[in-house]
Amino acid sequence: MYSIIKKLLLSVKNLTTLEIREFLNEKATFYEQPKFIETDPVQIPHFFTKNEDMEIAGFLTATISWGNRKSILTNAHKLMELLGNAPYDFIQNHTDTDLRNLEGFVHRTFNSKDLAYFIKALQNMYRKYGDLEGFFKQFNNENHLQNAIHYFKKEFFSLPHQTRTEKHVSDPQKNSAAKRINMFLRWMIRDAKAGVDLGIWKSLSPAQLSCPLDVHSGNVARKLNLLSRKQNDAKALYELDVKLRLLDPSDPVKYDYALFGLGVFEKF
User: 80, 124, 165, 202: which has the fewest C-beta neighbours closer than 10 Å?
Assistant: First the structure.
């Protein structure tokens, strides 16, 4: 491994595919460990034991996962407290008074009115599909979940709502990399054996997942010649998907740990 890192520092352009795979496998294993969750939003759904609570906590936490990580965690904990630390029960049984008690919550541009709509929309999704997994199972493509994300957004905003609230769920068909919802899907679908992802959705495969592409993973991917497109958009995500599936067709998104860790913690 030392020789590969030394070669990386000298010239990433000379790396073979096998060397890139070996390097990223090592880094993915290093970062995908329980200590990873200490500073990561994935810790929020880990506080729950019921699948429905983990699913809702994961979706809402992923929704506000942009900006300062400390602020994300502070507000995600606050959000769970507002839901009585029983998100599924709140979704199913909330009253108008309960929704009014959410007033004052804000994370960047996501405010209490957005949150109130999300609560109603989630209730609608659960009543129609049983749970969020049920929706994605129904609309999934055997190769990827980006089309399912597009249809999820359409269904999620099928109730009366303010147009501004729509910006909090991305749409791959509008050229978004949909980083936050792809991260949520990673949490739900990838195996829990390493102690980070939850792996509670058994009807979908890790092979269908796409990398939660952001500035950190994107920059590292470019340095490793896994990505040539400059923008972190849907086209870039597709390009990265192709490359990561070549490295591991059955679990391409394990490399999110390597790309993110190298960018955030190692300033690669």
Answer: 202
Contact 72, 107 (CB under 8 A): yes
Which tokens sit at 174?
Answer: 């509008």
From the centroid of its chain, how far is CA 90?
23
CA-CA distance, 147 to 106, in Å (whole number)? Answer: 30
Q: Does the CA dihedral 131-213-168-48 come out positive or negative?
A: positive
C-alpha 179/C-alpha 209 separation (Å) is 12
Distance CA 42, CA 58 (A): 7
Spell out the residues 6+ positions from residue 259 whose beta carbon is closer than 8 angstroms to its own. 24, 211, 216, 217, 220, 221
For tokens 């979940």, name the residue: 145
Contact assessment for residue 170 and residue 230, using Cβ atoms and an 8 Å cutoff: no
State the Cα–Cα distance between residues 258 and 246, nearest whole angstrom: 16
Query: With the C-alpha atoms ordered 242, 248, 249, 254, is the resulting torsion angle positive or negative?
Result: negative
**What is the number of other CB atoms lying within 10 angstroms of the CB of residue 90?**
21
Q: Which two tokens stand for residue 112?
A: 């209490």
Q: Is 110 helix (H, G, I), strand (E, B) or coil?
A: strand
Q: Which residues of 203-238 are buried (b: 16+ CB within 10 A; e: fewer)?
A: ebebbbbbbbbbebbbbbbbbbebbeeeebbbebbe
Which residue type occupies 150?
A: H
Contact 190, 203 (CB under 8 A): no
Instruction: Decide: pTM greater than 0.90.
Output: yes
Per-residue pLDDT of 66-109, as tens digits, reads 999 999 999 999 999 999 999 999 999 999 999 999 999 999 99
| Model confidence pLDDT, tens digit, residues 166-217 | 999 999 999 999 999 999 999 999 999 999 999 999 999 999 999 999 999 9
| Residue whose structure tokens are 């429905």 | 52
